[in-house]
Amino acid sequence: MEVRTPARMSPAEAEAVLRRALESTGQRFTEQRAAVYRYLLETDRHPTADDVFTAVRAEIPDISLATVYKSLETLVGCGLAVKLTYGDGSARYDGRTDPHPHARCLSCGAVLDVPGKLEADALERLGPVEGFEVEGYRLELVGYCEACGRN
Ligand code: ZN
Ligand code: MN
Q1: Nearest to 44, CA basis, from 4, 80, 6, 85
Q2: Mean pLDDT, residues 99-128
Q3: Cβ pair 129, 92 in contact under 8 A
Q4: What is this structure's pTM?
Q5: What are phi and psi of 93, to 5 degrees?
Q6: Å from CA of 19 to ligand 1 middle
Q7: What is the arithmetic mean of pLDDT over 83-110?
């Protein structure tokens, strides 16, 4: 199966995908939701809700943070975005929904995509977990981004 990465979608395709996903879950297409989705597709920075609010406000000045937040959750709910949650309660959003590893900065919290993927048998090498059915994995590399450095 070909994995369509969002980056390969034209704005028209992205809108069609969004309309279909919303309609199939009984929800309305709105310009706010479309703007939030477009921004998620065009960035690889894994923005927070605040980041998305700042970016989308340039296009829709009267949009509220609450609307941005609800739009993000709607996108996650219909499978068009992934919510990355962290132990400190913060969250970031990813418009790329195929499984892929991330690298997270321990200082500023920046999240980057990691190129490449693990061998198909990597999960099997971990061995079974007794009393647990594995559905997939989340892999996160931790370290320091270029801007933060080690200190
Ligand atoms: Zn950093
Ligand atoms: Mn990602």
Answers
A1: 6
A2: 88
A3: no
A4: 0.85
A5: -120, 145
A6: 36
A7: 93
Tell me which amino acid residue 125 is: R
- pLDDT, greater one: 120 or 49: 49
Residue 44 reports pLDDT greater than 90: yes
How far apart CA 51 and CA 13 sit, in angstroms, is 24
pLDDT of residue 43: 95
Q: How far is the CA of 64 from the centre of ligand 2 (A)?
A: 25
Give the 3-state secondary structure of 8-47: HCCHHHHHHHHHHHHHHCCCCCCHHHHHHHHHHHHCCCCC
Distances from the Cα of 21 to the Cα of 24, 75, 82, 97, angstroms: 5, 9, 14, 14
Cα 80 to ligand 1 centroid, rounded to whole Å: 27
Rounded mean pLDDT, 124-128 = 82
46 Cβ contact list (under 8 Å, min separation 6): 84, 92, 93, 94, 102, 110, 111, 112
Q: How far is the CA of 122 from the centre of ligand 1 (A)?
A: 29
Residue whose C-alpha is closest to residue 75's, from 45, 49, 105: 49
28 pLDDT band, cuts 50/70/90, is: very high
Amino acid at 91: A
